[in-house]
Amino acid sequence: MEEFVTLNYKGKEFSLPLITGSEGEKAVDISRLRAETGLITLDVGYANTGSCQSAITFMDGEKGILRYRGIPVEQLAEKSTFKETAYLLINGRLPNRDELTRFSVMLNDNSLVHTDLKVFFQNFPRASHPMGILSSMVNALRSFYPSLNDTHEEEINITMTRLLAKVRTMAAMSYKISRGHELVFPRPDLTYCENFLNMMFDTPVTPYEIKREAVNALRVFWILHADHEQNCSTSSVRMVGSARVNLYAAISSGIAALWGPLHGGANQAVIEMLETIQKEGGNFKNAIDRAKDKNDPFRLMGFGHRIYKTYDPRAKIMKKMCDELLEALQITDPLLDIARELEEVALNDSYFVDHNLYPNIDFYSGIVLRAIGIPTNMFTVMFAIGRLPGWIAQWKESMDDPKWKLSRPRQVYVGNTEYDYVPIHAR
Length: 427
What we know:
- This protein is mostly helical.
- Helix content is 52%, strand content 7%.
- It is built from 18 helices and six strands.
- The strands form two sheets. A three-stranded antiparallel β-sheet has the order 1-2-3. A three-stranded antiparallel β-sheet has the order 4-5-6.
- Helix 7 (153-179) packs antiparallel against helix 18.
């Protein structure tokens, strides 16, 4: 039975349809609100606005639930490869053995990048942030494949696979060029995660030793970051994609949005905060006190979350991975010691517990990436590689949506009312 919400305005009643999702979420459909009443809604930051109906990711911030296509993220982190998770998000189901093999072959076949791209990388200023470079280079990929028909399903699949393969290679390439090192090419005998670590750290002088613990930590990191509903960067991909731009441009916009310190840059901000605490003599208790002070703009990075009002389910998994990795690699790092002490104090401090300021995934992922050896300025790039399957899946879903519309938010104007132009001599 169809349900409605009634709006009373100027003595008239207007019925707004109530939409119910598969997990029982309810939403008021206001798509005809302005046409019927002349009103719009105001929701700064879109905290209470559903921009689409999606079958990709379900999350419940109150209960700490996150599922990809219905599968709990805990199960994927424990049992799935990153390639399987990417296939699941993009295609709506886990691949069988033959499908996974074909997918792996396509990733290997598309993992090399055009040699002209090396010239692009080398001409960026040395101080350029890797995220700015990556966003530009992903957009530039369209120039190398101008004949693609973005409405043909087979060619779309090739484009999506090409992005998954090449972004990983380009990320490692940018790091190597920034260090002045020779490039390391992908190897068909290595897994997706092994290949990335080898391309990053292998040198002719010191061959990289692929450690199982580091590969597993990277696998889990990428799976946990693969999608997260309609966040800032995903919404950017959908909004830019709604103009029917090519996939490369839409993904480039997502990378740019992810760059922000309040979004994907948070894991880098965690390490920078720990470095600041270390420079101040390791006095993390001062940071705790400042975070509690309402009059102090200081924020304890890596604690709390916009959506989760309980422990971030991804943080639980990443904490376990973090502990296992540090123990296996026997790493001695004063920054990691500060992080563990800070975590222990915050978890037992009533202020943080009462305000739901639990350590989030950014807190632990920054520590994990540092332990693997990833440079701090590459942290957000690692996030982008992980989030790529989600962005692609969201773009594809929006393209296939028969109810597609060009995204065009409204506004409530609060500027000057009409007045006449004043000639310059009279101003």
